[in-house]
Amino acid sequence: MQRNKKIKANERYFSIIYSFMALPAFLLASLYKNKLVIPTEGKSAVLSAAIQPPQVPTAEIRWYLGENKKQVTIVVNQSTVAFLTDDQFTLLTSVLKACKLNMADVAIVNLANSAKNFTQLHQTLNTRFLLLFNVATSAIDLPFSIPVYQLQSYDQCQILQASSLNTMLGEETAARDEKMKLWNGLRKMFSL
């Protein structure tokens, strides 16, 4: 008897919960985009038609990662991944944290997926600080070259060219030396 009361109480509870659950119209339309069932006097008629789901406005496709709140643009050239590998991303976030920045403050652009030049980066992202990881200045159509880890100003933008993030992975002496060179350049760039 007690068990039956619990079962009935659970059934009422779940019927209330399920009554509030409903799929949005666009989702239903996408599930049944080629078939339409119309019940008619106890029978169901299936109509095949090209029913178009409602048009959802397409947002502008973001070609960069991050929110760019502090106009810091980081440019990489990774043909095998969307932006960075997990190890590179972990390293980069620790470097950003040391600079008192986070992913919301930067925009990461992968030239392999989105070929942009300096003018496009500067105008679209309002770039104030540009960090190039294993990307030559000629790859973004800058009219000059910069020695690695030397800070350069151009068109109201501080530019720092660095070695690949891959050379900074690990704890070997060479990786630590590269990280130290990057840190010294970033300290100058961000006045840390």
List keywords for this structure.
192 residues, alpha/beta, Uracil-DNA Glycosylase, subunit E, two-stranded antiparallel sheet, 20% strand, elongated
Description:
The protein folds into two domains: 24-53, no CATH class; 64-190, Uracil-DNA glycosylase-like domain (Uracil-DNA Glycosylase, subunit E). It has 192 residues and is of the alpha/beta class. Strands 3-5-4-6-8-7 form a six-stranded mixed β-sheet. A two-stranded antiparallel sheet has the order 1-2. The protein has helices at 2-20, 25-31, 86-98, 118-125, 173-190, and strands at 35-40, 43-48, 64-65, 72-76, 106-110, 129-133, 151-154, 157-162. The protein contains five helices and eight strands; from the N terminus they run H-H-E-E-E-E-H-E-H-E-E-E-H.
Distance between the termini: 73 Å
Q: What's the Cα radius of gyration?
A: 27 Å
Helix content: 25-40%
Oligomer: single chain
Strand order of the largest sheet: 3-5-4-6-8-7
Total helices: the number is: 5
- Count every beta strand, where a strand is a DSSP E run of 2 or more residues: 8
CATH top-level class of the largest domain: Alpha Beta
Task: Please tell me the CATH architecture of the largest domain by its name.
Answer: 3-Layer(aba) Sandwich
* Proportion of residues in extended strands: 15-25%
Class derived from helix and strand content: alpha/beta
Q: Give me the CATH fold name of the largest domain.
A: Uracil-DNA Glycosylase, subunit E
Mean pLDDT: 82
Look at the structure and name the CATH superfamily of the largest domain: Uracil-DNA glycosylase-like domain
- Which outline best applies? elongated
Please trace the helix and strand order, writing H or E for each element.
HHEEEEHEHEEEH
Sheet having the most strands? 6 strands, mixed
